[in-house]
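Hi everyone,

Forwarding the result from last night's run.
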Amino acid sequence: MKRILSILFFLWMISSVCLGASPETINSDATVNIVEAAPTTNYATTNPMEISTYGAADKRNALIKFDLSGITGPVTVSSVVITLQDWNVSSGTTDTIRLYRCLRNWVEGEATWNIYSTGNSWSTAGGSGSGTDRAASESANWNETTSAWSTQTISSTTQLCSDVQDMINNGSNYGWIFIQDYTATHYHDFATDDDATPANRPTIVVTYTAGASSTSQVIMVQ
């Protein structure tokens, strides 16, 4: 009898892990450009989103948020991978783009260079206030060298995992902001959640352990 129970328990554990590893698709939440040269204009419906510089007073940051409400906490997140589709990039440039967790509850149809929602200003225009608008430490960075119509993968980091785990467990999901390092004229365009081709839209893959269970699941958000 004990042997039978042991076998049944073993099979249950295997089935739990296998079922948990099945990918689940969740609709994207929001993307928006904020543009220094047009500080009061909202670009929620503009595709692509730009992480670019066109001059001393024309920098463009981008906000992105994924709908993680389909994942019920508490969870322990072990891997987070974000994938973007390049539309266009500066020829022959290698630039560092940094991803910071956003600390403001920005609204896609309202956010601009000056405000994160109607009546609420960023502490520093462009959403770059360290420790106020965005986290002081970056969640990830990458050197952007890819060409147009190629895939850019932001690999998992400890901080990205911590970000997503807190977003799920504590409900404070304000997404991230992309900020570039350079000041010369460089541009990087990425497809948004409004892209007509679903395969081009940003995705996030989250691997986590749910509650006290040992089940790992992969969630695809696009």
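The first strand starts at residue 24 and ends at 26.

Cheers,
N.
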